[in-house]
Design a protein that fits this description.
heterodimer; A: about 300 residues; mainly alpha; MetI-like fold; 13 helices; flat; B: about 300 residues; 12 helices
Chain lengths: ~300, ~300
């Protein structure tokens, strides 16, 4: 197990380096510097600004200096909001996004896994078809459509829930969480159904039944651990999807999270913010991929032995 | 769907090709056939749009304003009095074009990459597939946003960027296909005849892996279209005066309280297309008996 974890951790390092390097140079070669804006700036001021942001140095020195800052956890100052650091902006937005993502993940896992397991218990009956058809709808109605429709129905026509905001009114977190979670609930339902179907035909399930366990104990005690492995392996990619999905959901519901900052930074050409946020999000995604792989390996010894052989 | 059943002996004796067999199986899957029909209809409409659109693309009738669906405007009009049906038809051209072209880019890169890695084997394979592993771990959605910001929002880049992201799974599928195929006698025969690797890959390996390629391609198109809608919704994808379903949905969402049809109809067009492609993809997977085409 430790060997597997060590191997995967080592594997993540080049990924992170590639992300940082590519992002850094992409942002640096972007046309239009941050200070070549409408207003003509006095040359001395411009030079001072460029010195402050280290833009006067050769590209490679800028890069190594940035890596040095990163190692100390410093993402640099924001171009757009002078006096505020990217760290502050991320610190302001990320807790909101993390909370939204957590609720969405809870929605996705609870609804998805329950629906998938229920469907798998009686394959090719109504108990299977109905949840799976709903899952298909979840996959084919993207969040950018699901959000407005939910607002229209529950916020405007029925007036049950607030239509925007975050933590301002009771219940305003419900619609965003459902919007963001629904697609993943659908995928998780399909994955857990397929995983459970495969496991339920295995010998050890027959053994469990043969020793006279009640069916619910066969399912809960024996089948779930194996049957939900695909779901656990999916959590890493799902997390990445949730983060980028939050761009849209935060825009729809006007939630002051990292996703909305990112999109605004993209429009403002706030390059240090984009760079910092990309590095931050990428690191987060890589770490979560790592955790979900480790969890999957813990649940499935066969995955571990694959790495043992290398 | 269950395993192929030979119900009609005469038909079995006649001998059916693999493709004919698959077609017969696909035809029995009602949802897949519906998907194929809807898709064919949308593609036909998209191709013919300049001739059959009820109004001109840029034609505004400010005096008319936003009206609900009526006999003159089947799907209503927006606040500038533009016909929504016309907008959706032109938007569909863009959305479908992005879906198909970006998928074609992904297909080309993925199949070539996977086939070369699988055929070469050994060190080359290890390096090529490790690169795929690394790319898999990158947060691509964020990178596409970044690309659109840095290089401006042009359509060609959108095609390339999306295509460049979606080829990874295709490469994995192709590689595993080629690895199992190249053990077989007909490939050995081709090698001993002195054919070049490129010819063997093109003439012998790719055609034999067509099943999984087709299935996965069908399932890639909807995810590409979603990506386009996602970017356009954020204002980072297709730009006015061009339009796409994602862009129409984002406009519709702004004024849905007063004019819900502006949200509902473009949404319906996108959702129907995604449904069709997914059902067709699932149906093809069963018909061509491809396992694990999407991991």
């Amino acid at each position: 197990m430790w060997r597997f974890i060590g191997f995967r951790v080592l594997q993540s390092i080049p990924v992170l380096l590639v992300v940082i390097t590519v992002t850094f140079f992409l942002v640096r070669i972007a046309p239009g510097g941050p200070f070549s804006s409408e207003k003509a700036v006095i040359p001395e001021v411009k030079a001072a600004l460029e010195a402050q942001y280290r833009l006067n140095l050769p590209m490679f020195e800028q890069y190594t200096a940035y890596l040095g800052d990163l190692a100390q956890g410093d993402l640099g100052p924001s171009f757009k909001y002078p006096g505020r650091s990217v760290n502050e902006l991320i610190a302001a937005g990320f807790p909101v996004t993390a909370e939204l993502g957590l609720y969405a993940l809870l929605v996705a896992i609870s609804i998805g896994a329950v629906a998938g397991v229920i469907a798998s218990l009686r394959p090719n009956t109504a108990q299977d078809y109905i949840p799976m058809s709903v899952a298909m709808i979840g996959i084919c109605v993207p969040s950018l459509l699901m959000g407005p429709i939910l607002i229209l129905v529950f916020g405007i026509y029925l007036e049950w829930l607030p239509v925007s905001g975050w933590g301002d009114m009771p219940g305003d977190k419900i619609l965003p969480a459902i919007t963001l979670g629904s697609t993943y609930a659908a995928y998780i339902a399909r994955l857990s159904r397929a995983g459970m179907l495969e496991v339920m035909s295995q010998d050890y399930i027959r053994t469990a039944r043969a020793k006279g366990l009640p069916e619910w104990r066969v399912v809960v005690g024996h089948a779930l651990r194996g049957g939900l492995i695909p779901v656990v392996a999916f959590l890493g990619p799902a997390f990445a999807g949730l983060l980028s999905g939050s761009f849209v959901v935060e825009t729809i519901f006007q939630i002051p999270g990292l996703g909305r900052f990112y999109v605004q930074a993209a429009f403002n050409r706030d390059y240090t913010m984009i760079l910092g946020a990309t590095v931050f999000l990428a690191t987060l995604i890589v770490v979560f991929n790592l955790l979900s792989d480790i969890l999957a390996a813990w649940m499935n010894p066969r995955l571990r032995s694959q790495y043992g052989e290398r | 769907m269950s395993a192929p059943q030979i119900t009609d002996i005469a038909q079995a004796e006649q001998g059916t090709s693999l493709w004919r067999d698959a077609w017969l199986r696909l035809r029995r899957n009602r949802l897949a056939v519906c998907g194929l029909a809807v898709l064919a209809f949308f593609i036909l409409v998209a191709l013919l749009t300049p001739w059959i659109a009820p109004y001109g693309y840029a034609q505004q009738q400010l005096a008319v304003g936003a009206t609900p669906p009526s006999a003159a405007h089947w799907l209503g009009t927006d606040i500038f009095g533009r016909d929504l049906l016309t907008q959706i038809m032109y938007g569909g051209r863009v959305s479908l074009a992005v879906g198909f072209i970006a998928t074609a880019v992904a297909l080309l890169i993925g199949v070539t990459w996977g086939a070369v890695a699988g055929y070469a084997g050994g060190k080359v394979d290890a390096v090529m597939m490790r690169l795929v592993d690394i790319l898999y771990a990158l947060p691509f959605m964020i990178f596409i946003v970044l690309l659109m910001v840095v290089f401006g929002r042009n359509m060609l880049l959108l095609f390339l960027a999306i295509g460049a992201v979606e080829w990874l799974t295709m490469a994995r599928i192709m590689r595993s296909q080629v690895q199992s195929l190249r053990q077989q006698e007909f490939v050995e025969a081709a090698i001993s005849l002195g054919l070049s690797p490129a010819t063997i890959i093109r003439r012998h390996l790719v055609p034999n892996a067509l099943g999984p390629i087709i299935v996965y391609t069908t399932l890639t198109i909807p995810s590409v279209m979603l990506l386009e809608a996602f970017l356009s919704f954020l204002g980072l994808g297709v730009q006015p005066p061009q339009t796409s379903w994602g862009l129409l949905i984002s406009y519709g969402a702004e004024s849905m309280e007063e004019y819900p049809w502006l949200l509902i109809f473009p949404g319906l067009a996108l959702t129907l297309t995604l449904f069709s492609l997914n059902f067709l993809g699932d149906g093809l997977r069963d018909a061509l008996d491809v396992r694990g085409a999407k991991d």
